[in-house]
Amino acid sequence: MTLEIIGISVLWMFLFGYLIVASIDFGAGFFNAYNTLTRRDHILTNIIERYLSPVWEVTNVFLVFFFVGIIGFFPKTAFYYGTTLLVPVSIAIVLLAIRGSYYAFAMYGSYGHKGYTFMYGISGLFIPASLSIVLTISEGGFISMVNDHPVLDYMELFTSPLTWSIVVLSITALLYISAVFLTWYANKAGDKSATELLRKYVLIWALPTIITAGGIIFELRHHNPEHYARILDLWWVFGLSFLLFVGTVWLIWKRKKYGLAFGLLVGQFALAFFGYGVSHYPFLLYPYLTIYDSFTNEAMAISLIVAFIAGLGLLLPSLYLLLRLFLFNKDYVRGNKDHHA
Amino acid sequence: MGNEEAVFFSRVLTELTLSFHIIYATIGVGVPLMIMIAQWVGIKKNDEHYILLARRWARGFVITVAVGVVTGTAIGLQLSLLWPNFMELAGNVIALPLFMETFAFFFEAIFLGIYLYTWDRFENQKKHLLLLIPVAIGASFSAVFITIVNAFMNAPRGFDLVDGELININPLLAMFNPAMPTKVVHVVVTAYMTSAFVLASIAAFRLLKGSNHVYHKKALFLTMKVGLIFSIATAIIGDFSGKYLAEYQPEKLAAAEWHFETEENASLIMYGVLDDGEVKYAIKIPYALSILAHSNPFAEVQGLEEFPEDEIPPLYIHYLFDLMVSIGMWLAFLSALYVFAVWRKWSFVQTKWFRWLLVLGGPLAVLAIEAGWWLAEVGRQPWILRKIMRVEDAATTSGQVDLMLVLFAGLYLVLGIGSVVVLRRMFKKNPVEQEIEDRRKEKGGDFL
Fold first, then answer.
1. Chain B window 327-356: which residues touch A at a Cβ cutoff of 8 Å?
2. Are the Cβ atoms of B404 and A319 closer than 8 angstroms?
3. Of A216, A324, B344, B436, which has the fewest Cβ atoms less than 10 A away?
C-alpha cells in the first residue's frame, strides 16, 4: 500500500464520519423544524436536543479534520479547489456558522424561538447541497484552465442534471440516515410516539434515496464514461450495499432491532461511499489532478501519518467515553436528570 | 475584477475574519484555565461560591466557544480559498502543525461536551475537575499549534528552495523555527491574561451596578491575581520577542520603532507622530532599544536604511506597538495596585472611579490583543512567507472576493450582536443571588 493510498483512505474515512454525524445533525434540525411548524414539536424536541447538545461541536471537527487533512496530504488541491470553490464553500461556511452558533445561542440563551427553529432546520439542508458541489466538480467537465488558472463554469454546473441529482441525493440521504438513527435513539429513550413518528420518516425517505443513488450512476455513464466503467467493475460492492439497505428497511418496517438497523445503514453507506471513492481512483479532480501528482513530499506524509496514529490513540478512547456517557447511558437518554451546566 | 483587486479584497477579508475570530479564540484559550482555577479553588477551600463561579463562567463560555468554532472553521477554509498559491507551496512544509491543531481541537470539543453535560452527574467535584484538564490542554494546544504555523510564515525554514521547487523537507525543523518559542508563549500567556481581565471586568461591573455580593468580590480578587501574574509574564516574554526580532526580523523591529539609521546606543521611541519622515512629539528613552534588542545599552541596532525600499513594512505599525505595550503596562500596574491594596485593606479599591478602571481593563486587554496581531501581521509585509513569497503572488485569481467580503461582514455582524445579546440575557435573567437561592432550595438547606 503506497503512502498516497493511505493518505486518501484516512481522509475518505473522516469524510464518511462527517457524512454520518452531520446527516444526523442536519436531519434532526429539519425534523424538529417541521414538527414545530405542524405543532407536533412536543414529540421530538426533547429527544433531539438531548442527543445534539453534547456532540454538535464534535460534528464540526470531522469537517475541519477533512479539509485540513486534504491540504496536508495533497497540497495541490488548494490550488485547484481553493481557487474555484470560493463562492459555494463560502456560502456553506456562512450557513454552518449561523447554524452552529445559533444552536449554542438557543440552548443557553432564549429557548425555542420559532423563526430561528425554522431557519435552523432549513439551513441544514442547504449545507450538504453546497458542499456536495465539490463531488460534482470532481467528476470533471466544469473547470477549465484560463491563463494557467482554473476557472469554474457556473452556467455549465447549474444546468447539469448530474449536479442536481447529487444535491437531491445529499438531501434525501441525510433525512433517511437521520431518521434511522433517531428512531433507534427514541426507542432507547422509551419514547413511543417519537419512535413511531421517526419510523414513518424512515419509510418515506428510503425510496427516494435509493432511486437517486441509482440515477447518479446512470448519469455518470454520459458524463464520465471512464468513471462509470470502473463503477461497473465494482458492481458487487454496490449490490451488497443495496442488500444492507433492504435489511434496514425491513427491520424498521417490522419494528425490530433498531440498533441493528442503524448498523446495517452505516454498512450500506460505507460500502457505497468507499465503492464510489475507489472507482474515482486515481483522480481527485478529473482529469487535472490525480492523487499521485498532487501528493506531498515523503517526509511530510510520514509525519502526518504518525501524527494521525498518535491522534487516534487519543481520540478513540475519548470518543468512546463521550458515547458511553450520552448515547449509551440510560439515565441521560431518558432525560431523568437535568445535567447541563 | 483585476488581480490587484482580488489581492486587496483577500487581504481585507482575511484581516476581518482574523480580527473577529481572535476575540473569541483568545477567550476560548484563556477561560477554560480560569474555570479550572475557580473549580480547583472551590474544592480546596470547600467554598461553593467558586464552584458556582466556574459553573457560570462555563455557561457563558459555551456561547463564545460556539462563535470561536464557527469563525475558526471560516478562517481555516479561507486560507485555501483566498490564498491557494500560498497553501499549495507552504502546505508541503507546514501541514503537520495544522493537522495537529485539529486534533487538539477535537480533544477539547469532546471533553467540553462531557464537562458541560455532566454537572450534576458526579457526586465528587474532583472527578468533574478532571474533565476540565483536557479541555484546558486542548484549548491551549490548539493555540500553540496554530501559532507555530504563523511563526513559520515569519521565519520559514525546514526546506531548500531549488529553482522554485521545495526539496529536503523537514517538518519538525519547520515547526521549531526561530520565531516559534517567543510567539507561542506570547500568544498563550496574553490569552490567559486577557481572559482574566475580561472576567474581572464582569465582576467589577456587577459590583458597580449595586450588587454587593461577596461572590463578585471573590471573583474579582481571583481574576485580578491571575491577571497580575500573566501580565508580568507577558512583559518578560515581550522583552524576548524584541530580542528575537532584532536577530531574525530586524526590519519589523526597525519599522515598529521608527528606527531609521543603524546606530549604537539606540533609544526607544514612545508615541509621537511621523511627519514627512520626521518624528515629532515623541518620548525618547535613551539606550532602551539597544537593551530591548540585545540586552546591552551600547549595542548596535539595524535601521530601516539597510533594507530595500520594497521590503519595508508600513510605518504605521509603530502606533500599534505603542498601543499594545502601553495597555500591557497599564494593566500590569492596575492589577498590582489592586492586589496590593486589597492585601493592605486600602479602601479606595471600593470607590466607583476605581471600579470603572477595572471594568475598562477587559476591553483594553482585547484591544491590545488586536493591536498586537495587527503589528505582527502588518509588520511582515510585503511577505506572506518571509523572503520567499510575496502577498500579491499568493492570492486567489477568483473574481468574487469582494462579494464574499460583504457576505462575511454581514455574518460577523450577526454573530457579534447575537453573542452579546445572548450573553447579556443569560446572566440578567438569572443573577447570581437568584441562582444561589435556587441551589439552596434544591439541596435542602446545606448549601452555603
1. none
2. no
3. B344
